[in-house]
Amino acid sequence: MFDTTNAKKLVEVRGLKMYFPIRTGLLRKHTGDVKAVDDVSFDIFEGETLGLVGESGCGKSTCGRAILRLYEPTEGSIKIDGVEIAQTDFNSLRKMRPTMQMVFQDPQASLNPRMTLAGIIGEPLSEHSKMTSDERLARIYELMDAVGLNRDFANRYPHEFSGGQRQRIGIARALALNPKFIVCDEPIAALDVSIQAQVVNLLEDLQEKFGLTYLFISHDLSMVRHIADRVAVMYLGKVAELAPRDEIYADPLHPYTKALLSAVPEPDPVAHDTANRTILQGDVPSPANPPQGCNFCTRCPVVMDICKQIEPQFQEVRPGRFVACHLYENTTKTAEKVA
Amino acid sequence: MLTYTIRRLVLAIPTLLFISFIIFLIVKLSPSDPTAGLPLTIPPEVREQIRESLGVNQPVLVQYFRWLQLMMWNEPLHLLEGWTGWEIAPDGPRVISYQTRSPVMDLIMQRMPQTLWVVGVSYIVGILIALPIGIISAYRQYSWFDQIGTFISMLGFSVPTFFTGVLFIVIFAVNLGWFPSVYDTTHVVTDWDSFIVQIKQIIMPVMVLGLFNASQISRFMRASMLDNLNQDYVRTARAKGLTERVVVLVHVLRNSMIPVVTVIALNVPAVFGGAIITEQVFKVNGIGQLLIIAIQGGDIPVVQTVSFIFAVLIVLFNLLADVLYGVLDPRIRYD
């Protein structure tokens, strides 16, 4: 288990907000925002894997992209390796890119169809380093070896590969510049189950070998349980709960986490039939118009009056365990606030 | 790729034969009479003799095969002799224009340079204007630049060249007097002054046709760029830390050019075909004008031959576009 007590913080996200403006009418007036990521704060320690889970549309991918400034965040601060990147200008950001990389969800669409494998992997090298073409080729081969691709493939195009191989290309590309931090944006969602394990094991091996730090975005709770050291659960643009992996799976605190974990399929038929599942009612509210108070109050099985009025604070309730829920807050204090 | 090209070329032969036959039938079906333009004082018997001598009283199939025979063998040899100087051309008959009594191929060769020069330049100008406009419009979608570009493209699309041509003449030739309204094809460029004169007389036809071409191609370019700009691989390119210029001009543009290049290739036969109306408006004696005069005068051999050459060019450039697609897009392979 990863020890967070004396590890260095590699990524610090504070109050990150990513709003997409809604423009309507003839003059395309700004009439509202889709609050894809709404005030998210967390840290990622060097060498760990933080799993980011949540259902579709909860803002996981947006959060991952905003952290790498692939979107312009609306508000908040992102520090990677001690450097603030939320507001830096384009050129200094570009020089930061080697430190932080991303593995994308769709390995087919995220590779330029007109570039050969060597071109795809080698492009960041020619952009950010002063290698000769021989050195570059040597590095490309080295990376291809690292991700388990045959060297003969260097001059082929992405469409000639299978999904798993393409994802390996994507990983090799992300590794090219020796990054410290990699955002894996559902890297296995588009792959066959048999290939998923290969890719996840490859990611783990590479982490061990190069000391990488991952933000692993996924909706596959079992896979996150396998790979992550700590897990953050997102709901409607906010982090509901953040805790070490074993604790969150054994004893989820937030009602949403409980519901989410009870939805994991149970392989044992007997256990499956007797399992006490929390089935959530209703749909996720629109991120353009989130409910007042707690985001989850419209579907929460243990909803209280206070949940519909005051937004719960995201706070540490036990060592290493953060949760945003009124059940775990000092209720007297919040009751005073209401009055 | 080579076998594919050869197979397509072989397949083109029956296609072209069929097209030539259809063109022939359509032209024959039209109620035009090659002697209609002759003075009314010519007695009917003489008229009949003229018809007889032109061969228009023979069965349609016989006429078709005679024309085909000349078109497939004699005329290409004459063409080759004209280009190389080898004395290989047979002495036999040629496809003769009813109106001018000269071989149709010679007429076409006389007209071709003017057409290629005026229409070709306008096509190139159109492409050169269209590509940057399309790229910037897509990159700054819904910006003022894009809105204005869209508006002008719609104008260029929807307003016919006989209107813009006349409008340009009224404004720039009649009112402002900047440019001549007639394109003088006998003008020879020898020095700087005559070069200026050439530029002045070519500007208006080139602008009229260029506007039309540019509006079409810029829309294609914009649509294709927009398709690609939102692709995941563009985000990958940004994540690699490339400069925005490299992202747009290398990653996006190279992928966007694939459909645009084929559209450009497919439109090249229209350059050879000339712009029938624009040539008429600016009095450019090119292929388009030749075709119009031939249609008016019932000059069947000219109409037939010119249409057939268009058909050949269209088939060839379709093939070229397909081959280019294979060259540009590694996902497409022809075996």
3D architecture notes:
The complex is a heterodimer of chains A (339) and B (335). Chain A contains 11 helices and 12 strands. The N and C termini of chain A lie far apart (44 Å). By secondary structure, chain A is α/β, with parallel strands linked by helices. In chain A, a hairpin with a 4-residue loop joins strand 1 and strand 2. Chain B is mostly helical and 335 residues long. Chain B contains 12 helices and no strands. The longest helix of chain B is centred in the middle third of the chain and has 38 residues. Chain B is globular and about 85 Å long. At the A-B interface, helix 2 and helix 3 of A face helix 8 and helix 9 of B.
In a few lines, what is going on in this structure?
The complex is a heterodimer of chains A (339) and B (335). Chain A has 339 residues and is α/β, with parallel strands linked by helices. Chain A has helices spanning 60-67, 90-96, 117-128, 133-146, 163-175, 193-210, 221-227, 245-250, 255-262, 269-274, 331-338, and strands at residues 9-24, 29-45, 49-53, 75-80, 83-84, 100-103, 181-185, 213-217, 230-235, 238-244, 315-318, 321-323.
The number of helical runs of chain A is: 11
Determine the oligomeric state from the structure: heterodimer
Average the pLDDT over all residues of chain B and give the rounded result: 87
The helical percent of chain A reads: 25-40%
Annotation field: number of helices of chain B: 12
Describe the global form of chain B: globular
The termini of chain A sit apart by 44 Å
Assign an overall shape of chain A.
Answer: globular
Number of DSSP strand runs of chain B: 0
* Helix-and-strand structural type of chain A: alpha/beta
Could you name the ranges of chain B where pLDDT drops below 50 across 5 or more consecutive residues? none
